[in-house]
Design a protein that fits this description.
The protein has 416 residues and is α/β, with parallel strands linked by helices. It contains 18 helices and 10 strands.
Length: 416
């Protein structure tokens, strides 16, 4: 049985969400949509792109849950009608929009994760029906704009069979204004780029930006790795860290997406809640560098851990700083490392499995718990400024200037 069929057998798609598509579709963009009266801006930005010589479909999953207020359900129906009227389907066009409405989603599942998963599963079904094993699924959000070359760059990705998935460069719309809303998103993006570069600096190999509006995956790899989850928030983080370490990936910097900086209650954490928190408290907090340094010290021991006898592992764990030591004990790290050593014959395999064990989920949990017990969260400014000055020799007198320098540094580093 083909991988597509195996996946679709396990992840049944409701019959009303299966239909015929253009026979030559190569890229399917999936957009979850909940209470999005301004989605037309996103669709317009796609419409204004330069079109490659292929057919691209956009699935818009207009969703609501069993607890969704009536006025939002009404807005969803207005959105659906608007898309049908403003962006009518035409099989001869290079780009087509297909809105779908799903309502009454159970409370425990309702959210962007469920809608994104359903849209991506629909894409798998479409590519399976076409027999297209190279089909590309792209994730986008209903409040995000794209550059004019977005579609052509995605088609370049589609045309390179070596690329199995990846992420897309992003930049929130910010200026050097002191307005609170602007400062909030500026500081939040600084936090994101600090976290990304801190992971890189401490020797963690899987440092990715996990932005829901900025990634793509071959449908075949999506199915092979079990598809998207249904989490109400953070579904992009969990999915990308599940898949990207195991595929040939590309960080696409030749185009970009521009996510919204709006306040939002659509998800429990992420951009919207962070913006709201800053506007209410005047603070944007991030992890302290000391917590990352403890991880760096531990990661640097991996070669010695591979070479040492199993009865000496506890000594290495005892040598790390107390916050990480406590967490490693709770994690049962000694037993897991002993099992890892017993089942790996060379250092290369050991290193891969070491970071499969001490992965992105381990890091986030350690950072959160250690900042509850040992460390204090820091204001993004000046913590981020000090980090980039020390480790990247980037010096700036303002958050806006620093962010622009980091963006350029990220692009240059990726293109090397």
């Amino acid at each position: 049985m083909h991988i597509y069929e195996q996946y679709l057998k396990k992840h049944d798609i409701p019959g009303q969400f299966v239909s015929g598509w253009h026979k030559s579709v190569s890229i399917i963009i999936v957009i979850p949509c909940y209470n999005e009266p301004e989605i037309k801006h996103t669709l317009d930005s796609l419409q204004k792109c330069t079109f490659p010589e292929t057919h691209i479909e956009v699935i818009i999953l207009i969703n609501s849950g069993e607890m969704t207020p009536k006025h939002i359900i009404s807005q969803n129906h207005e959105t659906y009608s608007m898309i049908l009227q403003e962006f009518p389907f035409d099989p001869d066009k290079n780009l087509n929009f297909k809105p779908w409405i799903i309502e009454g989603i159970r409370k425990k599942h309702a959210g962007a994760g469920y809608a994104r998963k359903l849209g991506m599963d629909m894409a798998v079904s479409t590519f399976n029906g076409m027999g297209n094993e190279n089909g590309l699924i792209v994730s986008l959000d209903a409040d995000t704009l794209v550059e004019p070359n977005y579609l052509t760059e995605l088609f370049n990705v589609y045309s390179d069979p070596e690329i199995q998935g990846g992420t897309i460069h992003f930049e929130h719309p910010v200026t050097d204004s002191d307005e609170p809303e602007n400062q909030a998103i500026l500081l939040y993006e600084l936090h994101l780029r600090y976290y990304h570069n801190a992971l890189k600096e401490i020797g963690f190999p899987y440092f990715y930006y996990t932005i829901g509006s900025a990634f793509f995956i071959r449908a075949l790899e999506y199915a092979r790795h079990g598809g998207m989850n249904r989490k109400q928030g953070g579904e992009d983080f969990y999915f990308l860290h599940k898949v990207l370490p195991h595929i040939n990936k590309k960080i696409l910097t030749s185009t970009k997406v521009i996510p919204s900086s709006r306040i939002s209650d659509r998800v429990p954490f992420g951009t919207g809640p962070k913006i709201r928190q800053y506007l209410e408290t005047g603070e944007m907090l991030t992890y302290c560098m000391e917590a990352f340094t403890s991880l760096q010290n531990f990661f640097s021991l991996k070669e010695k851990l591979f070479e040492t006898d199993t009865n000496q592992i506890q000594g290495f764990i005892n040598a790390v700083p107390e916050p990480l030591h406590t967490f490693l004990i709770e994690f049962n790290a000694e037993e897991k490392l002993m099992e890892l050593k017993q089942n790996t014959a060379n250092f290369q395999t050991f290193t891969k499995r070491f970071f499969d064990l001490f992965n992105a989920f381990f890091i986030v949990k350690y950072l959160n718990e250690s900042h509850l017990q040992y460390f204090n969260m820091k204001n993004v400014w000046p913590e981020v400024s000090d980090f980039f000055k020390k480790h990247f020799h980037i010096v700036s007198g303002s958050p806006y200037d620093l962010l622009n320098q980091i963006r350029q540094s990220d692009i240059k580093t990726t293109e090397k």
